[in-house]
Amino acid sequence: SFSLSDGMCGLEPTDSLQCVTSTSSKILVKGGTVVNADYQQNADVYIEDGIIKLVAPNLKVADDVRIIDAAGKFVMPGGIDPHTHLEMPFMGTESADSFFTGQAAALAGGTTMHIDFALPIDGDLAAGYDIWAKKAKKSCMDYGFHMAVTAWNDKVAKDMEILVKEKGINSFKFFLAYKGYFMVTDGEFLQGLRKCKELGALPLVHAENGDAVAEGQTRIFEQGITGPEGHPLSRPSVLEGEATGRAIKLAHFVNTPLYVVHVMSIDALDEISRARAQGIRVVGEPIASGLALNDSVHWHSDFQAAAKYVMSPPIRPAGHDKALQAALANGVLQLVGTDHCPFTSEQKAAGKHDFRKIPNGLNGIEERMHLVWDLMVNSGKISVKDYVRITSTACAQIYNIYPQKGAVLPGSDADIIILNPNRTTTISAKTHHTTIDTNVYEGWTIKGNIEVTISQGKVVWDNGQLNVEKGAGRYIPMPPFGPLFDGLEKLDAARLRSYNPVDRTIV
Ligand code: URP
Ligand code: ZN
Ligand code: ZN
Ligand code: ZN
Q1: Domain boundaries, the chain
Q2: Among 3.30.1510.10, 1.20.120.1780, 3.20.20.210, 3.20.20.140, what is the CATH number of 1-507?
Q3: In the chain, fewer beta carbons within 10 Å around the N or the C end?
């Protein structure tokens, strides 16, 4: 439910969300178990003006401080979702959540920051950045941007430099799929990798073999399989494994770190695992849907019931989900995203007669924190500290904004969640906050409930009550040369030393 509007926050009448402004800027979160990625303790957390000031047991505070009782609960850094697509033009339509509605949903689910994928406009990165910055003005939580690189020329290279040096972007996504739209060739990818390395920006890759996907789609469709089940059949995991391996090898050739987005399969996992065992700097990001679901959902007899799961790379057969969970637990994969890219039933209906036209994408920004708790902590696969690491801290570190984000430490931004491990929550389109009419986790009941979300030191989610403010969200610039670049110059030097040309006398 939503609280009544105070009429001060600039909401337009069409907005489905209402808001009130939280007045108290001083908060004490009392008596909880404070969990960071490396340490957990029973302590109070004192917050003032959006910043965590103190973390210690038995703090005494003045009368004007709001006290939130967290006894028996976990007090943790707010979630950071490294992978979202809000109001993104895609496949003839636009993803259904705006920066405002998507972020409100995120806050209701314990996520206090996300990194959204800005797209170039007709190949123009600078123009794309401007459009995304404008869309994001209505934000109610903190956010950052990745930028996609969908072509290669001097202007793209120059814009990458400007975005890194002046606009706070430190990651670029390259698509090896979506032939004819976003896809880049190996040659273009290679140039992009070199530029990323030079700038200290992290290259991200959508790893599927786009030529093979296009061929597979035509072949499956011409065999008469026109429904949603044609989607996973046309782009099996072998194509994800091939592209993941290729991307890792090209990045290794350039000696740059690489980040693989939406790792969905054992095939991709094996490539990442082997590379990491060789000391290659590759990071893998599974997403909530890949951890939680399997491909049987595409065979539902009702079109809509199946189409809501269509995303790329596709949700894989049973077994891949468990392997991804295990890889998260053992450290082969480092952090969890969502690829939140929601479309309504009406939008999905564009592909009623042709699975190739179903807009690719599904929800998750609101569900990720609860799902990961359920799949990973309730199952005993990881500790609560590891939960904090894979939902928040690792993301902040990789994108070089730690400890401003990703920690409950003095000096960090006051982005905090309070999770009650004994209360259950049920996911449903009837009660969720994203704008779409379906939910791929419909009916899931999870033990563990995020009762309170604090964003920038304000209580924005409080036992079912959302108090968000349009325009309160801030752009978080992300500096280049994050931890994945540490020592890379020494590896480069070692490579150079190993190049021993033969000194021949030509007669
Ligand atoms: O199906 C998906 N994943 N839609 C969003 C675009 C992308 O490839 O991440
Ligand atoms: Zn307001
Ligand atoms: Zn992608
Ligand atoms: Zn995506």
Answers
A1: 1-507
A2: 3.20.20.140
A3: C
